[in-house]
Design brief:
This protein is α+β, with helices and mostly antiparallel strands and about 325 residues long. It has ten helices and nine strands. The radius of gyration is 20 Å and the shape is globular.
């Protein structure tokens, strides 16, 4: 399964990068192939290591900064992760694709997606735990409800091909996960979030593979039409300032709460790849509040009270 899924991620990375380059029309992805270093001498131990393929896009016509990264790492599970998973010493393997795109225009939303697979082994190398995780979510700076509906409808369509209970379940989990508890607001308008997807009586690991790849394959369909619709809208310097203030909240979530970021930092991941999710221009303005009745306040109202975007649509 691990080889099958990582091969899928390599293909998906190529497809997503090609689609984003075509959308931007100017910038191309820079690629770095890296190897995980796990000891102080700077040389990877034979039993530990791995690596990945980082691709970053910057200063484009549309995308100010973004990354589409894949990795596959393995070795001894760090103490911090043992405590998190409530296990003793164990070997692990983890692979995934993680992407974040920060557009230049505040009218175009930031987007994040991640699809991953994890295994743990006993002393004899037998798999004792395995699961999938992932999702995709949208972070707009100005709220266009038709964009939110399109994104969520694409997510629901992908989920419904496998189980009609998945979309409401994973939409709810997304709203709960991407929540800045110290701000009491959502990072964005959500999408899907699923984790610890293990084999059950009704879902085999092959079934989970088919579901996760269905969601991964839906990403460009979910995001690119929104970019195309909003990329040429005019905006003011004040709206750009609002975008940078909201980006500050994005940074706060990634550095304080995000499990993927924390996992990478605690397993000797590649720092440049882990922190590629951070935008290049951000502001923290003391005690900032949008004007009453403004488009900015409209966004905040939705972030403080997550919405069922598809409730008004009959299926």
């Amino acid at each position: 399964m691990k080889n099958k899924f990582y091969h899928y991620l390599q293909t998906l990375q190529d497809q997503i990068c090609s689609g984003l380059e075509a959308c931007d029309g100017v910038a191309k992805f820079r690629e770095d192939i890296w190897t995980r270093v796990v000891d102080e001498q700077g040389e990877a131990k034979r039993s530990e290591g791995g690596g990945g393929r980082t691709r970053v896009i910057e200063t484009g016509a549309i995308f100010e900064k973004g990354g589409v990264n894949i990795s596959a790492v393995h070795g001894k599970l760090p103490d911090s992760m043992q405590k998190l998973f409530n296990v003793g010493e164990a070997d692990f393997f983890a692979c995934g694709l993680s992407l974040v795109l920060h557009p230049k225009s505040p009218m175009v939303p930031t987007v994040h997606a991640n699809w991953r697979y994890f295994e743990m082994y006993d002393d004899n190398g037998n798999v004792i735990q395995q699961w999938f995780g992932g999702g995709q979510d949208l972070t707009p700076y100005y709220l266009f409800e038709e964009d939110a509906i399109h994104f969520h409808q694409t997510c629901k369509t992908a989920c419904d091909k496998h189980n009609q209970d998945f979309y409401p379940k994973y939409k709810k989990q997304c709203d709960a996960y991407f929540w800045n508890t110290h701000r009491n607001e959502a990072r964005g308008i959500g999408g899907l979030f699923f984790d610890y997807c293990k084999a059950t009586e009704t879902m085999s690991m092959e079934d989970w593979y088919n579901f996760v790849t269905e969601v991964g394959n839906s990403f460009l369909e979910a995001y690119i039409p929104i970019v195309e619709k909003r990329k040429n809208l005019p905006y003011t310097s004040a709206q750009r300032t609002w975008q940078e203030i909201r980006r500050g909240r994005y940074v706060e979530f990634n550095l304080v709460h995000d499990k993927g970021t924390l996992f990478g930092l605690k397993t000797n991941g590649r720092i440049e790849s882990i922190l590629m999710s951070l935008p290049p221009h951000v502001q923290w303005v003391y005690d900032h509040h949008p004007e009453k009745g403004s488009e900015e306040e409209k966004l905040i109202e939705v972030l403080e009270n997550p919405k069922d975007w598809l409730s008004a649509i009959s299926f």
